[in-house]
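User: Hi! Is it possible to get a structure for several chains at once, not just one? Here's what I have:
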Amino acid sequence: MSEIHLENITVAYGNVKALDNFSLRIKDGSFISLLGPSGCGKTTCLRTVAGFIRPDRGNVYIDGKRVNDLPPNKRKIGIVFQNYALFPHKTVFQNVAFGLRMQKAEKCEIRDRVDEILKMLYLSGFEGRYPIQLSGGQQQRVALARALVTKPSVLLLDEPLGALDKKLREEMQIELRKLQERLGITTLFVTHDQEEALTMADTIVIMNEGKTEQLGTPGQIYDRPENKFVAEFIGLSNFLSLDITEVDGEDMICALDGNILRIPKDLHRENISGGCVDVAIRPEKIAMARDMKYEPEIHCIPGMIERIVYKGSFTLYYVRVAEKLSIVVQRISGEAECQNYTLEDRICVCWNKRDILVLGP
Amino acid sequence: MNFEKEGYDLVTGFFFALTFVGLTLIVCPQIVVLVTSFNSTPELAFPPKGLSLNWYRHMMEREAFLHGMKLSLLLATLATVASLVIAFLFSLAVVRYKFFGKDLINALILSPLIIPEVVSGLALLYIFNRLQLYNTTVNLLILHVLLTLPYSVRVISATLYRFDVSLEEAALSLGADRLRTFALITVPLIRPGLISAGVFSFVVSFNNFTATMFIVTRQTTLPVEVFSYIRTENDPTVAAISSVFVILTILLILVNKKRIGARRFVGR
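Assistant: Yes, the chains can be modeled jointly so their relative placement is included. Here is the combined structure:
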């Protein structure tokens, strides 16, 4: 199949750089998700691979061949657009057959291959319908069928599930990933929905202002965000800004409103001796206890429950630990140890010190 | 609630009455002309004194009318085609691209809508004389293209603004080159706009009198011929011609309304 390599790509619109010296290597058969807020350059990146945008600087390689000057119709790509872009004047069959017709395939071959892909996407029987006569989910599958029927070397997905309702979207995430694995097609997926990226991708690229903030597996991105932007963008976090009072052999000793936190030095990527440090802690890594715990591995801070928000399968506790600082704790709803905590209870929030995410100074 | 509904009915009734009066004022004279054209006596009388097709025969027998008709049809056809091609290319540039002086050129193209036709006609007459261009048909064609451009540009750019560019991108990504994308995707989807613009242009060109009057020489268009005819004669022949005009125009508008094939993908 195919490997994509973007090398030092810069794309500018006036003074704004949509992509700023951006590089990315997508391995054959992998499923990469570009994730970021709107305007971060993820769609520009996809359109550059597709050939709709010619980069101002840098090179695009598909299978080792430089394709900067190759127009989109020669790149053997399949694209699913956010609005699907189905041809409204053509039937489902004609839509799906379009790419094969452009390749001048034989009539019977076209019929066979369209039938096959429609069957694969549960669309048999809809051949004669026009796009307007289909539901959103069906339109989405037709768009996918149309993109895949020509057996492209690269599949580009531009927020293809954004217009579907939540339940259907979650079903399609799984279906799409299964299909991608079965076909082994290299896929670039653009989304602003972190859950979608975590569910589907084997590699996530977090983008911001035309640059990569972090690249990694969903696990790496969630468990070890490298900076505040990533930690803020993915999941919920408690952010703490700490003053480093002292550094000893193993730990940075930090102060937080009268509490002393010992943070293992090896969690910090740089060798630090003083100043301040930004850290984060995920709400689900925090436990609550009635009494202080004085164990070397555990951080424990006293506070008061000021708000309890029931979210169904889990419950959020907002615990005020200082005048200007409240910490969110996420526990499974109905969990035995939490059942007797109520509003205004004085409790302690505790976490293992190795669960701290050090985001840099 | 009840009060609101009554108020609503009153407003609706008022606008309905206004529409009715307006339509009556527009339609009645045309009916009078249509009926008068079947009069059997050589005067413009309503109600007619007896029925006949004399004036239609007279119309067909008068060579000047036939020549005028031929020139008008030829002009309308050529002006429509030229106007569509220019308007399409121009609209494409205006809608899809940014360039220097875009608003100015746009305003210039639309200006014949605002400038009195007397001015346009006179200006062109002056220019043609200065450049020593004396081919009436070509001069008229230039005038009519200028006069029809605002209509076709407006209709076609409105259609193009609504056109979803990602449809073209989808076709490109599926291996269609620019030309095939244009022929298989773009043109079929903006066809209703092209037909509309074409009908507008044809009608504007075919019916134009004021500006045309300045450019015509011995060869004249049908409206000008009719004008010179009623200066000397006063029989229902002109009513017959007017009736042909009206019916032709109505037919064209009906064709436009149908926009054959469009409804299939616009609604269920």
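The two ends of chain A are 43 Å apart (CA to CA). The interface with chain B takes residues 50-52, 71-79, 81, 83, 85-89, 98-99, 102-103, 130-133, 146-147, 150 of chain A (CB under 8 Å).

User: Great, thank you!
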